[in-house]
Amino acid sequence: AQSVSQHNHHVILSEAASLELGCNYSYGGTVNLFWYVQYPGQHLQLLLKYFSGDPLVKGIKGFEAEFIKSKFSFNLRKPSVQWSDTAEYFCAVNNYGGSQGNLIFGKGTKLSVKP
Amino acid sequence: NAGVTQTPKFQVLKTGQSMTLQCAQDMNHEYMSWYRQDPGMGLRLIHYSVGAGITDQGEVPNGYNVSRSTTEDFPLRLLSAAPSQTSVYFCASSYQGAPFNEQFFGPGTRLTVL
Questions:
Q1: φ, ψ at A80 (rounded to 5°)
Q2: Does A59 touch chain B (CB under 8 A)?
Q3: By the number of CB atoms within 10 A of the CB, which of A1, A12, A45, B50 ranks highest?
Q4: What is the DSSP letter of A16?
Q5: Residue B99, preceding peptide bond in cis (omega within 30° of 0)
Q6: Measured at the alpha carbon of residue A53, what is the angle toward residues A90 and A80, in degrees to the nearest 5?
Q7: A32 and B CB contact within 8 Å
């Protein structure tokens, strides 16, 4: 069965620090990859997605992610975090060609940014 | 467009009670799904539907029923609530058949079972 691993449960950073959140998945076939963000008390919003092409994907709010197929990884990065980035971040994978639409989520990484 | 809407926002039930969580979308999406979110567990798929009249089980379907009589609506029924069903429930929808599968999420229903 597919699985998604997010390495960090809780990350605490100061403003302007750089961010990298790890994500690894277990499926060996063609995959679609996503990062969602959940701000406190809100629903999930899409940050960025990868389907094919350039493995470096840029999303909203200055976030980017790099797909490394050989490492089954899709790490999320931001060069300089802000207090408003405090949220929980979820990596998700869908195996293209499988049960359409079904996403497998990681357990999430909570990011706290200190002002 | 309202997107994906869910009602109620909050609900408290006693063990054994039944209730229906409502979900509707106005984007004409074929695919709809229900997830539950528990601390440290991420989101887990309960049930999903690829179109009106078609539903299937996800990862954690026990204790929940769904039906899909229209494209717009996808209610989730708890037949006999248990404390283990205390959770936040999210409904999501997306286009079916595209390779993109970007899902749009509703605001969630926070359910407490006493």
A1: -150, 110
A2: no
A3: B50
A4: T
A5: no
A6: 45
A7: yes
